[in-house]
Amino acid sequence: MLPSRGEAFRFWLKLGLISFGGPVAQIAIMHRELVELRRWFDERTFLNALNFAVLVPGPEALQLAVWLGWRLHGARGGVVAALCFLLPSVALLLALSFVYALYGQVPLVAALLDGLMAVAIALIVQALVRIARRALQGPLHVVLAVAAFAAMLGRWLPFPVVLLGAALAGALRVRETQTPAAPAAAARFPWRTLVTGIVLWAVPAIAVFVLAGGDSLYADVYRFFTTAALVTFGGAYAVLAWVNQQVVEVYGWLTQADAVAGLALAETTPGPLIIVLQFIGFMTGWNHPGAAAPGMAATLMALLTSWAVFLPAVVVMLVGAPFVERINANARIAAALAGITAAVVGVIASLAIAFGRGVLFPDGVAQPNLSALAIAATAFAVLTLTRVDVAWVIAGGALAGLALGFA
């Protein structure tokens, strides 16, 4: 029996408030609640939706929730699921961003952040190991991972080109003689949803152009994070590797330390980990407020960033929702996705080096930060060898940073 709109709303709001621990934990919560306990979906429907969410750009746990909401109550149900999933994390990270900007240099807060940043490194490495085990299924995938690592670390190719090349290599691997799966029933294309999404994206763009100008920092931020949203394959860590290169090294909007701190803070909030991009937008406004007050500029930049990042993810999922069965049956698309996932291993490895260098070896390899190394190593061991919830690992890292910082 399908739930009422009120029942669905209460579940999505609950999910938004408790969805700590990253996409794996969030997907597990949805599976347990919606398939095993409430029985709103069967196993096959859930897995088909998950496969599609992984395929399209955007945070997969959010997009899975959008599709499930759409399946229950149409486009409005998908939008309600998205808002409930996102708004708690948007509000909480905005508050934490102000704490960081105002008090990040206070010894107490700085010590807590040091512990959180060390745990963030452990989480990146754990994600790298987990994805590598699943993604590197043969020599081609290993080659794609190594090539992506070299391209990102050496700044040889932009991130979108790396993904496109990996997708093409994976797709070409499928033999033309392979028997295609039976096509699913045809579905009507949701033009109204697509047009609505384009209008919703265009309204802030026009407002920024009229009020600040097309060459303003606000316009640059909106364009950049819209691009980031459209290449968000492979999860937050993958796109963050490219975003970090651009905002720190190319544009100079914030420092490497700011970027790592943003990831650490994003790990402490519910919702999608890609919310870290909101923090990057916030610090961009804080560091470059122009004629506005820093707090006002930072808040506007943060909200513009979240709108640019999450609106395309929701629209893509709602537009593609009627075609889930047909896309899941396409072997070439599945092979292209496998190629992208293999490349993501290399991309995340480049992020681990970039962030690890700044947190664990800020003064060079010869002078490691022993406290950060100890916290990161302990966190990695706990995450790998035990089933302790990631929220407790993050809390332990913060306390360890506090203790070692004042030892």
Describe it.
- The chain is an all-alpha fold and 407 residues long.
- It has one domain (89-407).
- Helices cover 77% and strands 0% of the residues.
- The chain has helices at 5-18, 22-37, 43-55, 60-103, 107-135, 139-153, 159-172, 191-211, 217-230, 236-250, 256-267, 276-287, 294-320, 324-328, 331-360, 370-385, 390-405.
- Helix 5 runs antiparallel to helix 15 (331-360), helix 5 (107-135) runs antiparallel to helix 17 (390-405) and helix 10 (236-250) packs across helix 15 (331-360).
- The N and C termini lie far apart (58 Å).
- The relative contact order is 0.17.
Short key terms for the protein model shown above:
17 helices, mainly alpha, 407 residues
Briefly say what this structure is.
The chain has 407 residues and is mostly helical.
The largest sheet is: none
> How large is the count of helical segments?
17
- Poorly predicted tracts of residues: 176-183
How many whole angstroms does the radius of gyration measure?
21 Å
Query: Which structural class matches the secondary elements?
Result: mainly alpha
Helix content: over 70%
- As for the number of domains, it is 1
Number of strands: 0
Q: State which percent range the strand residues make up.
A: under 5%
Order of helices and strands: HHHHHHHHHHHHHHHHH
Give the overall average pLDDT.
Answer: 85
Principal-axis shape:
globular
Distance between the termini: 58 Å
